[in-house]
Amino acid sequence: METPPAVGDLTVVVPARNAEAILEECLASVAAAGPAEIIVVDGNSTDATVAVARRHGARVLSDEGRGLPVARAMGARAAGTPWVALVDADVVVPPGALDQLLAEFWDGRYTALQAGLHSVAGPGYWGQALVNHHRSGRSRNWFGVVATIFEREELLRHGFDDRFVSGEDIELRWRLERAGKRIGVSRSTIVIHRFTDSGFRFARDQFLADGQGLGRMVRVKGRRAVLLLALPAAAGARGVALSIARAQLRWVPYYCCFVAFNYVGMGRQLFGRGSTTAP
To answer: pTM, whole model, 2 decimals?
Structure first.
C-alpha cells in the first residue's frame, strides 16, 4: 500500500506582486505548517515583497512581470516534491488546514483539490461588497487555484495558458474535467481569503480582469464557451435579487458595477483590445 504524503512532502508556491502588506501573514501561516519548501514567485515588485519572502525562508524566483499563469507554472517546475500547493498571497492558512487538505486530497484520489474559502475584508464598502458576493455567490464552490493542492506531474502536464490575465483557473478546470481528472473544492478544510480595502479602483480592476478572462475563454474555446457570455449578467441579477430579498439594498450598486465592468473587460478581449499581459 502506498504511504500517504505528509506536509513535509509538499512544496508551497506563492505568486506575489507588490504584496508586502499581505504577504507577511500568508507566509507565516504557511511556514508554520512545515512544508518541504516555500517558493515565492515575484512579479517585479517595487515594494518589500522579496524581503518579506526571504525573511520567511522562501526561495524567491522572478516571473519578470509576466503574470499569474507564468508565475504558478514556474513555481511548480522548480518544486522538488511530488505534490505542490498553489497558495495566493491574500490567503491565510489556519493551523492544521494544510495537513487536513492534503489528507483529503490523498483519500479522495484527487488530481487537484482546493480548500474552501472564507472571505474577509476591512470596513470599507468595496471590500465588504466583495466579501458579500463571494460568500453568497455560487462561485464559492467552483474549483480554482487560490489555495489548491495538485499532483505536480499532472499540473505540469496540463499547465496554464499564459494568454490569460484572469480566468486561467476556469480554463485549467475546463481541460482537467475534459481529461477525466478528479478535481474538487473541500467543504471541510477552510482557509481565510482576504480582500484589501483599496476602494472602488481595486474592485473595478478585479471586474475588468474577470471579464477579460471570460472573453479570452470564448476566443480560445469558441462555441463550447459561448454560454460564459451570460455569466456576469446572471450572477449580477442573482446578486441584486438576493440583496432586495434580504433588504440589503446597499449591495445593489456593487452588482451593477460588477456587471458593467465585466462586460467592458469581456468586450476588450472579444474585439481585440484586451491585453495578454498582467496589469
So the answer is: 0.90
